[in-house]
Amino acid sequence: MSVEGWNTVLVLGGIRSGKSEFAESLVADAPTVRYVATSAAADPDDTEWAARLAAHRARRPGSWTTEETAEDPRRLADVLASAGPNETLLVDDLGGWVTVLLDPAHQPADDVATITELADAVRASEARIVLVSPEVGLSLVPTTPLGRAFADALGAANRAVADACDAVALVVAGQPAWLKPSAPVPPAGVPTRAAAPADGLDGSAPAAVATVPADGPLPEVLTPTVPPAPQTPTGTTWTTPTMALPVVATGLVIQPGMELPMPDEYAGPQAVQRLGTLDLPGAGLGVLERVVEFAAATQGTSTPTPWTDVRVLLLHGDHAGGVAAGAPVGESTRLARQARAGRGALARLAAENGAGLQVVDAPPAAPIEHGPALDADTVESALRYGWRLAEEAAEAGVRLLVLGACGAGAEAAAAAVLVATAGAEAPTVLGRVHTADGEIDDAAWMVRCATVRDALHRTRRSPRDAKDILAELGGGDVAVACGVLLGATARRVPVLLDGPVGLAAGMVARDLAGQARHWCLLVDHGGHPAVRLAADVLGLTPLLDLRLDLGEGANALAALPLLRSVLALAGSLPVHPHHGGPDDEASGAAATTPDAEPEPAAPEPSAPVAAGDEAAQPDVIPEFAEPTPAGPGPTTTAPTDTGPEPDPSGRRAG
Question: For 56-115, what is each residue's pLDDT tens digit?
Fold first, then answer.
């Protein structure tokens, strides 16, 4: 689609406004387009209407296909819902669809339910969709009952579909005006109107920022599941939604100097010391010993168990202004919607790991180059909201949180927080900006650098305490993430950090409660300079150097199976015989009771078997003990493994 970053667009317009031509231009770059015609067949005697339909057909390229849905109004929703991610559909138009819907041949019917089904299909579809619809709400109220019924039904359909679409355009006299959410990049050759200054770029005050409902319901928690077979049809999602239980507000005040718990200072070293005694071949776990030490300290035991109940928190909060330079318009909204629908890399990895997925809408941030990102009240609400998210997760039995983010401009805003808290220079912590085609956008990177520089200059005389930094520079996603880290610390729930937003939140949380960083684990730095800097300041050495770039949250999930495997080994392997563990041969001899008669010894061979005389050699079949699968907790009894004989030298690799 020529409109960058949007999958579903509703084009409204009056009669002869040019709405259909504009809609066709939006899909002009698609290799193939499925044209969905919704109107009933024309009356053979109506030559003028037939001429209109012929003109529409003449404009369509030969690569387009046509599909008609006039026979059954409900079929349009089925067509949209079943379309694949590589398809492009142009629906023209909803006025004809409503006409067929109100036809007596399709009555009685629940028109409201049918419109709702259409909107749900648009919202859930993976295809690129452009819908055309007439705007009749600006005319006089019709004088006939049927006319009023048509205007009411079409108005309801337009509202429902507009709410489901990513973008909405109104075409007046051939000129498109973007209504939702703001003017995206127009397609080539399409006339545009002059855009009014936005986001305070004309010197005016920025738009009001939404406030987090501190005591309202929490977002839905999704439980992704792996598709049952590779033949799962395209469009099948991996989610079974489950509602999070409501949590009563605690009324606590989040402020510097909070006394929160620390991990067990003895369990971690004891777990590492115990690793040196296990029956591990070779040099052991290497740097992944830190996973065992971290899990042992946060679980309070020297024999930690793999994390089973995991929840991913995906924070979606956009940042306006220069920090979002180069970010495709609407991409963050698409990713959040994709995660809610159980699609995309994050949802698939969550399904593979059996993790819950919770998409959290954070308050949007105003341009930091012109003024504060948030007001003080919104910062307080966001911190408490994040705390409640962690508290509810702990109440639901979650034992590990994974923190991710997908907001536009989030990386640059997080970098601004790091510049303010760690004293770095903006160019050293801002990662390269890539276009949707994977090319490096140096111009956008320079805009981000200049924006962070201007924001730091604007706040040079502002206090640099935690809440001021969140208000001036951080924005809603960093504030909510900070609250999550504090709430998780209070409930002794470890957190896997993944990306600049989580690390920036860790820097701010450190100034509110220094204990929070000890409950955080960084799996991979992803090659991001801001993550490297924050990790160094917080003392969080990345476990791996994979340079994954799958999106915040997805990187940690990709490495989670490895971490679980390490904990499973640490909790289930027996002690090496050199360190007092059971000797495999001795264990087998001890299995016979004292009262039992010994088995007769094997007879001595009467003569040695000549070399090469394989027919005279007895068949010797080695016995292999089937390993007992490790349970969820540490193994308390030594397994009766009859594996290979231990090294007679007693040497233990360390």
Answer: 777 777 788 888 888 888 889 999 999 988 899 999 889 989 988 888 776 766 788 889
The count of other CB atoms within 10 Å of the CB of residue 460 is 9
From CA 466, how far away is CA 254, in angstroms rounded? Answer: 11
pLDDT recorded at residue 247:
36
Give the phi and the psi of residue 171 in degrees, each rounded to 5. -100, 120
**Active site amino acids:** 552
- For the stretch 590-620, what's the b/e string if a residue is b when 16 or more beta carbons lie within 10 angstroms of its beta carbon? eeeeeeeeeeeeeeeeeeeeeeeeeeeeeee
Q: What are the pLDDT digits (tens) for 628-648?
A: 444 444 433 344 444 444 444
Q: What pLDDT, on a 0 to 100 scale, did the predictor assign at position 253?
A: 78
Beta strands in 258-394 (DSSP E): 310-316, 356-361
Do 14 and 158 touch, CB atoms closer than 8 A?
Answer: no
pTM of this prediction?
0.57
Neighbours of 565 (CB within 10 A): 13
Task: Report helix, strand or coil for 575.
Answer: strand
pLDDT at position 213, please? 59
Is the Cα torsion angle 269, 275, 277, 278 positive or negative in sign?
positive
Burial 411-448 (b: 16+ CB within 10 A, else e): bbbbbbbbbbbbebebeebbbebeeeeeeebeebbbbb
* Under 8 Å between Cβ of 484 and 508: no
Question: Greatest CA span in the chain, whole angstroms?
Answer: 116
Q: Which of 617, 630, 625, 627 is nearest to 644 (CA)?
A: 625
- Between the alpha carbon of residue 121 and those of residues 38, 76, 350, the distances in Å are 16, 9, 24
Residue 416 · residue 424 · CB < 8 Å:
no
